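We modelled the chain as a single entity of 138 amino acids. Its sequence is:
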Amino acid sequence: MAREVVFVALGSNVGDRDAHLAFARQCLAALPDTELKAESTIEETVPIGPVGQGPYLNQMVLLESALDPEVLLDACLAIEEERGRVRGERWGPRTLDLDVVRFGDRVIRTPRLIVPHPELPHRDFWQRELAELETHAE
């Protein structure tokens, strides 16, 4: 089965942020038909959402995966949930947030998944992380 290059953004601003990101990297690397090829530098950013929440740690990983995009999305949601993610207010605080930012050259528009991620043009840190990782993409 052919693998595609996938970029997944990781973010956390609740609890042990470093541990949450490490957990996500470990789980993503363990997915079937998937290999974690590279990870960006971790950077701290101010929250985009409501005031009164702590800063985020953000990172992006480059995967090569043969998974269907929606299967990867389900895996990301399960990883978030396992780490205690509770979906409340939009852009609210979270233990772990995983976003599929790009999936090969695909343009995906389903009720559950939009790729490239619609927030990509608005998040400078994602653009920096992508630029760092693209040197590893084959």
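As a brief sanity check on the tokenised model: The chain has a mean pLDDT of 91. Strands lie at 4-12, 34-39, 43-45, 56-65, 97-103, 108-109, 114-115.
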